[in-house]
Amino acid sequence: MMPTLWFVIVALMVVVYVILDGFDLGVGIVHWGVGRTEDERSVNIKAIGPVWDGNEVWLLAAGGTLYFAFPPLYAAGFSGFYLPLMMVLWCLMLRGVSVEFRNHIHDSVWRTFFDGVFTFASALLAIFFGAALGNVIRGVPLNEEGFFFTPLFTDFRTGPEPGVLDWYTVLTGVVSLVALAFHGAVYLALKTDGQQNHKAKRVASGSWWVLLALTLLGVPATLSVRPQLLDNYKNHPWLFVVPALVFAGLIAARHFLRFDEKKAFLASCAYLLGMVGFPVFGLYPVILPASNVPERSLTIHNAAGPAYGLQVGVIWWAIGCVLAIFYFRHLYAVFKGKVSAESAVYGH
Fold first, then answer.
1. Which of 205, 217, 222, 309 has a 20 to 30 A CA-CA distance from 38?
2. Do 29 and 122 meet the contact criterion of CB atoms below 8 Å apart?
3. Is residue 266 domain-resident?
4. Helix, strand, coil shares of the chain as percentages rounded to 5?
5. Is 252 within a domain?
6. Integer angstrom CA distances of residue 50 from 42, 53, 212, 250
7. What is the pLDDT of residues 113-143, one digit of tens each?
8. How far is the C-alpha of 253 from the C-alpha of 198, rounded, in Å?
């Protein structure tokens, strides 16, 4: 019971991070597409200024929860993906530095440089996170001790001894890039008005078609790499509501984008929920498949922490989660509404 509960908790933390930090990553990706002038790019930054660093807290929370609930998975993942994780950390630091430093000096060259860094780091992070999910779905070459080493790339083929990057993980990285770009553009449409609102909607509408094509391509590609994903859905048909969210959210986002930006953003959130939830609940009870010897896969049973610790941890996790919810509710309530070029840097 406890391992399953913590599996759901970890999945929830990841989904919350993808949705919340996903839109400010997306803003970074479309930063130059929506913000053609320096003032417009400043509005983009102001739209996420009060919340972007708070959103990243959920990444730390997800990592901490994973370490507490499934320490062997944490140990295997953070050792096997050491190089990609270092790249992720550098990109996270570059995003933070670019957001904070661009306003320190009122010089067009200075701001243009950090705007470029912001977009570059945001795009790379989206690709890395998508490729990471692709690696989990495809599996990694676990040894008898439950550890692995995976080079950055080999021959770009999936198999028993793959690299971090192959045709499938590159595809999931591109899907992540476009999905978060769409998510960010919808968020900017929600937070801006006038000409910039129209630009955000145009970027969102254009990326929607690309996202639809990639989603239709990604589903069969995922099933070809990991056909076992459908087993849980066949055994529990009610789970099909999760992949149904993918297409329902995508269609609803396109529909509402024209006249109700808030509903369009919520629909985009539903799409991301379905995209992350589909493989997660398809893999259960496996949390890290072994690509070489399936019996070595890490599951919620052989990777779970001590039972007593998991029981006590639920209480403290619930307390911390309630406090976080109240904080974020207050934060988003204070900074609700549209932003403009006349707004304060971190306020409206």
1. 205
2. yes
3. no
4. 75, 5, 25
5. no
6. 13, 8, 31, 27
7. 999 999 999 999 999 999 999 999 999 999 9
8. 16
